[in-house]
Specification:
With about 220 residues, the chain is of the alpha+beta class. It has one domain: Jelly Rolls (Sandwich), CATH 2.60.120. Strand 8 and strand 9 form a beta hairpin. The longest helix has 20 residues.
Amino acid sequence: MFKQTFVAAIISMASATAALAVPVGGTVKMEVYQRIGANSAQSEADPVNFGGATHLGTVLYTGLLDFGTYDGSNATTIYDWLGTGVGGSYVSNLGASGNNILSAPNINNGTATTTFFDIVGYSVTGFNFTVSHDDGFSFYDDGNLLASSAEPTVEIDTDVNGYNGGIARFVYAATNGNPSVFRVDADVNFEPTLTPVPLPAGLPLLLAGLGAFGIIRRRRAKA
């Protein structure tokens, strides 16, 4: 009886722990960069690598941060990958660049195609979370690096603790061929929702003032 009770307690604890993992979603902005002919160091999920890449455009995405493609032919496009977002939709100005191949080998000889996603959102409330990924990522809390992981060759989980709210910035690198996985699950009893980064409180007034100043200058010029 004790053994059965003990086993039942373990199962109950495991179920309770699993229930705490909830998906993170909301509305985020993604800047998309791509580098063709990249080696391992140039494919790491570090903003410094944007300097050697081409900026393809901007995506406004709403849905869960849960993307994944597993096509072994490596024929997945950027649009294909964005379309795997669970419950998601997006608008972008990528144009024909969205049809670019997302990821291709080989980082070992410097011929890889690497696509970087610079993902930014905002949360009033902080939370701990786990990033499931194949290829590297880094996470910044209000501009401060909180966690990073170099590109793995298989899907792994990386725990991120200590995010206290504010600007959440994920940099994800899809490289070296599929799979290309990026999923964020929070360890909380509510479902965190990221929102677009708010403008500074005084910025709308400042922009309005600058606009009025421009109008006054044009009127004076006409006079």
